[in-house]
């Protein structure tokens, strides 16, 4: 959600969206290959501490919208045309309509989708679908490029929410510079950002590996960053 402009510059609206999204619906859209979550760090990442700030509650979401009285209820929802991402975006658009927004759904080719939403000159960058595959196995990769104020660029922007929190930016930088990962520090940072609700995390994708029955599964190595280690595949 674009935190720099109405209606998502209001924390009550952003929290309402988090309450309104039903991760179980998205789990079905992604054919059960989704572990529902409501936080930034995925399970298994150092610093992950499970919490649920926004259990699905449409009635509470509507009350927050009523209190916020957003002055701008016209929003553009962005998504790409790959399945099931397109279906997930359509579901999100419907959720916003149920909250009283007038939604324009804009679906682009996946070939240039992230280039478009990463260009701040693109008009009507209100909200939309995104995913994130880690670049390296460290919790900083989920904060520095996605939520740090210094990661906001005119082009090739990855801080899609455009959030810039002066008290949290130094915490990202400080944790990044430590020689050892501070799991408690990243867990607290995760909660701090989700209290501000700049995004509505809906789940962690679960990927599968299928091999011939002649392959020794006990020897197969799967890396959460790089996927299958093909050199580990061995015949029984």
Total discrete domains: 2
- CATH top-level class of the largest domain: Alpha Beta
CATH superfamily of the largest domain: Dipeptide-binding Protein, Domain 3
Shape: globular
Helix content: 25-40%
Tell me what the CATH architecture of the largest domain is.
Roll
CATH fold annotation of the largest domain: Dipeptide-binding Protein, domain 3
Radius of gyration based on Cα positions? 19 Å
First-to-last CA distance: 50 Å
Mean pLDDT: 95
Largest sheet: 3 strands, parallel
Taking pLDDT < 50 over at least 5 consecutive residues as the criterion, the unreliable ranges are none
Q: What's the total count of β strands? A: 7
How large a portion of the residues is in β-strands, by DSSP E?
A: 5-15%
SS class: alpha/beta
Please trace the helix and strand order, writing H or E for each element: HHEHEHEHEHHHEEE
Strand order of the largest sheet: 3-2-4
Helical stretch tally: 8
Question: How would you describe this structure to a colleague?
Answer:
Strand 6 (221-223) and strand 7 form a beta hairpin. The N and C termini lie far apart (50 Å). The protein has 8 helices and 7 strands; from the N terminus they run H-H-E-H-E-H-E-H-E-H-H-H-E-E-E. Helix 1 (11-20) runs antiparallel to helix 3 (58-68). By secondary structure, the chain is an alpha/beta fold. It has 2 domains: 11-205, Dipeptide-binding Protein, domain 3 (Roll); 210-236, no CATH class. Helix content is 31%, strand content 11%.
């Amino acid at each position: 959600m674009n935190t720099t402009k109405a209606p998502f510059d209001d924390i009550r609206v952003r929290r309402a969206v988090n309450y309104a999204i039903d991760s179980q619906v998205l789990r079905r859209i992604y054919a059960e290959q989704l572990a529902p979550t409501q936080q930034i760090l995925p399970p298994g990442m150092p610093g992950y501490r499970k919490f649920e700030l926004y259990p699905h509650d449409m009635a509470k979401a509507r009350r927050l919208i009523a209190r916020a009285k957003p002055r701008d209820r016209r929003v553009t929802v962005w998504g790409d045309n790959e399945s099931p991402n397109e279906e997930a975006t359509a579901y999100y658009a419907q959720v916003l309509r149920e909250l009283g927004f007038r939604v324009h759904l804009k679906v682009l080719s996946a070939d240039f989708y992230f280039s478009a939403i990463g260009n701040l000159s693109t008009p009507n960058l209100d909200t939309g679908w995104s995913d994130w595959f880690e670049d390296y196995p460290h919790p900083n990769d989920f904060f520095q490029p996605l939520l740090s104020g210094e990661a906001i660029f005119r082009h090739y922007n990855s801080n899609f929410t455009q959030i810039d929190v002066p008290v949290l930016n130094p915490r990202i930088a400080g944790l990044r510079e430590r020689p050892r990962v501070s799991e408690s520090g990243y867990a607290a940072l995760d909660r701090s950002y989700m209290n501000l609700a700049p995004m509505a995390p809906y789940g962690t994708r679960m990927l599968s590996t299928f091999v011939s029955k002649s392959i020794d599964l006990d020897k197969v190595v799967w890396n959460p960053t790089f996927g299958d280690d093909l050199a580990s595949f061995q015949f029984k």
